Amino acid sequence: MKINTKTILLLTVPIFMFFILVVPYKYANQSFIVDWLGCGCPQIDETGNLIENNFNANDFTRVFWAAISVIATALAVFLSKRIPYKRLWLRIAYVAFVFVSAILISYMFCQSMMWN
Fold first, then answer.
1. How far apart, in whole angstroms, are the C-alpha atoms of residue 89 and residue 102?
2. I need a surface site. Which of 52, 64, 69, 108 has the fewest CB within 10 A?
3. CA–CA separation, 24 and 35 (whole Å)
4. Distances, alpha carbon 96 to alpha carbons 27, 35, 45, 78, in Å
5. pLDDT digits 0-9 by tens, 39-55
6. CA triplet 20, 16, 32: central angle to 5 degrees?
7. Does residue 108 contact residue 27 with C-beta atoms inside 8 Å?
8. How far is it, in rounded angstroms, from Cα 50 to Cα 33?
């Protein structure tokens, strides 16, 4: 049994999902998430005391991309059943590749979207 083009394209969905979601998330982050939760910038009140912001837009960004990483890995586990080879190692290698790629892409996106 051979892998066709449709299967190859379907197996790339977990990785391309990140690059599809980055544009709307950046827009949402700049438009209303920062206004809603506040940025990660240190804030000082009128008396000079540091105001502690427990959960801000930076934390929300980390949670969002971590959730997308979990979803991508779960999707890879589901899609690995489409690999027609009967070798378990190939399916495990595909899921491991998606997992590592998802973690690295999430880290890269989180670092680029941090509010200082």
1. 20
2. 52
3. 16
4. 30, 37, 47, 13
5. 777 667 777 777 776 78
6. 25
7. no
8. 22
